[in-house]
Write a structure and sequence with these properties.
heterodimer; A: mainly alpha; MetI-like fold; 14 helices; B: mainly alpha; 2 domains; two-stranded antiparallel sheet
Chain lengths: 294, 319
């Protein structure tokens, strides 16, 4: 049984590409290609490298040779962890991101199913309204959303941080595409057996679209985790900062101690790096879904 | 035989019957399934847009109260104001600095890594690594690199003697280089995204095309322009639109790297920073903020339309 009807996505980042003669340069060409790859990789990694060097160097030695890792300490990381309240902020980000992910997946699946498999009056009107929201940039609405959330009394709360992002049109479209590509016979067969829409969705639909669901979940999580402008607007009590707005506070209150800021940045970057290493297949699938089908 | 065909006939009849149904039968269920998304999108996308359009023609006091209508001519006033014009010019410049560079570098990396070589997976992981950095993380890395007194580059002697301006006045502090420096940070952060998309696109290009072209005597450069670029058309268009949209929405980089400065030129005050930034002159005027936000929406709308119509038509969609 096919697991998903969306185009299969090769594990782009780690795959063994075709080993045909044509794709495998030899001799001097190969050496040249390796040389170029190494040079470019060094350039791309340079900012990350300097961050790591700074994060692990003692504060008194760090201004001499900032590019050379000639000393090692965990003190700066420890200091950044307590001074930057990173534990608390990572926890806040995690709570918000998990709530946003769960709600986005559920709301997208429900709406997408209705658009793909139900027939009802005014469907096109609703659909156009959903499409229209894709055109509106976040930055154009946050001014007003701040007033809305503030009026609810939810500034500086998890609810306030999560609320505007609990549903996205992107998710609805992504899921609608895969639901529409399910064979109609499948639904007909279920109907004859007396299975209703919700039962069909739960027992047949969801298992079949699981890979795309994973991509959507990853995107929802990253989108929420990386949110920068919104937490800066809606949070002004230090307890409720997310990692991103917390980094801003750390940076602004330690302008003369960049190695402390780098230690905090390093710690803040680790969770996403791990998530992406684990879910790179979903990342590629989600990214290309927009490009190929959008 | 007969039994069997009756059953078949029956099931076909049932299917036909169910498919017709009443037009309104699924309506309640559909509304229930649409409700969660519709409520959120209505309340936090459509309503605020409408409200912003309305608020954009009003002036309010510092607390956002006592708003007075100024007529929709206020949009024209905002658009023609020196501050908005400056923000618009800065944003366009920023897009011109960052979008083509980001696209070319991302495609370059992808083409470079699109060969079968031992260890190529490591290089691909490196090239896509910047996708894991958030705006805050990437911007703070570059802030650390570029700060004039306590930054990394300013304290490397050989670099300092090569480029004295990194220490005095500092690339983020010099009105002539600040925007470029912010763009470099932004391009770097976007490399992973472009690389992954273009790499995925390249793997959809049939190798036979390259082999046939090579047999016909086409060199590497010719193959790139005559095969790779046309076959990547839809991917490149998508990346172009995403990068442009992002460039026009740039906020975090400016907030962390320059605060819209250096002053008094506001050399890096993008439209989004003009609306939300802590140094923005309209920060305490809800009406003007809403108006400028609506103008940002309109600018992006026009831009996407131009890109889709102008370039989209020429893009070749395989299959």
């Amino acid at each position: 049984m096919p697991t998903d009807t969306a185009a299969p996505v090769a594990p782009v980042l780690l795959d063994a590409a075709s080993s045909r003669e044509f794709d495998a340069p030899r001799g001097w060409r190969r050496a040249g290609r390796y040389g170029l790859l190494v040079v470019v990789a060094v350039v791309v990694l340079f900012p990350i490298y300097t961050m790591v060097v700074a994060a692990f160097k003692p504060s008194d030695q760090f201004f001499e040779n900032p590019l050379v890792p000639d000393a090692f300490t965990l003190d700066v990381i420890r200091e950044a962890w307590t001074a930057g309240r990173l534990g608390r902020y990572l926890f806040n980000s995690l709570v918000v991101a998990l709530v946003v992910t769960m709600c986005q997946v559920v709301s997208a699946v429900l709406a997408a199913y209705a658009f793909a498999l139900l027939k009802f009056p005014l469907k096109n009107v609703f659909f156009v309204l959903f499409i229209a929201t894709l055109l509106v940039p976040l930055e154009a609405t946050l001014v007003i959303n701040f007033d809305t959330v503030d009026a609810l009394g939810w500034a500086n709360t998890y609810q306030g941080l999560a609320l505007p992002f609990l549903a996205t049109a992107f998710g609805v479209f992504l899921m609608r595409q895969v639901f529409m590509s399910l064979p109609p016979d499948l639904r007909d067969a279920a109907r004859i057996d007396g299975v209703g829409h919700l039962g069909f969705l739960r027992h047949v639909g969801l298992p079949l679209v699981r890979p795309t669901l994973g991509a959507l979940a990853l995107f929802a999580f990253l989108g929420s985790w990386n949110q920068y402008l919104w937490p800066n607007l809606i949070v002004n009590e230090t307890d409720m900062n997310t990692v991103q707005s917390g980094l801003r506070v750390l940076s602004r209150s330690n302008l003369d101690q960049p190695n402390l800021v780098m230690a905090g940045t390093f710690v803040a970057a680790i969770p996403v790096a791990i998530v992406l290493l684990l879910f790179q297949r979903q990342l590629v699938r989600g990214l290309t879904a927009g490009a190929v089908k959008g | 035989m007969i039994r069997c065909s009756v059953v078949e006939f029956n099931s076909v009849a049932i299917v036909v019957h169910l498919r017709r149904g009443s037009r309104w039968r699924d309506f309640p269920l559909a509304m229930m399934m649409l409700a969660p998304s519709a409520v959120i999108l209505g309340l936090f996308v459509l309503y605020p847009l409408g409200r912003a359009v309305w608020l954009g023609q009003q002036r309010c006091d510092n607390f956002g109260d006592n708003c007075v209508s100024q007529g929709f001519g206020q949009y024209v006033d905002i658009f023609r104001s020196t501050e908005f014009q400056n923000a618009l010019v800065v944003t366009v410049k920023f897009a011109l600095l960052s979008v083509p560079a980001g696209l070319v570098l991302g495609v370059g990396l992808a083409v470079l890594a699109d060969k079968y070589l031992r260890g190529i997976g490591v290089f691909r992981a490196v090239f896509s690594s910047t996708v894991a950095t958030s705006v805050a993380v990437a911007s703070l890395m570059w802030l650390f690199l570029l700060q004039p007194s306590v930054g990394a580059l300013a304290n490397v002697d050989w670099f300092n003697s090569l480029f004295p301006s990194v220490k005095d006045p500092g690339w983020l502090q010099d009105p002539g280089t600040a925007l470029t420096a912010v763009a470099v940070s932004s391009v770097w952060a976007g490399l992973g995204f472009t690389f992954i998309l273009v790499t995925a696109g390249l793997q959809g290009v049939p190798r036979e095309l390259y082999e046939a072209a090579a047999v016909d005597g086409a060199g590497g450069i010719r193959r790139f322009w005559s095969i790779t670029v046309p076959m990547l058309g839809p991917t490149l268009l998508f990346v172009l639109i995403v990068l442009t949209t992002r460039a026009f929405q740039t906020y975090g980089e400016v907030d962390l790297l320059t605060d819209g400065g250096p002053q008094p030129e506001d050399s890096t005050t993008t439209i989004t920073y003009f609306v939300y930034g802590q140094n923005s002159p309209i920060r305490n005027d809800a009406g003007l903020q809403a108006g400028a936000a609506v103008l940002l929406f309109l600018v992006l709308l026009v831009l996407s339309a131009i890109q889709l119509r102008g370039i989209g038509r020429r893009v070749h969609y395989a299959n």
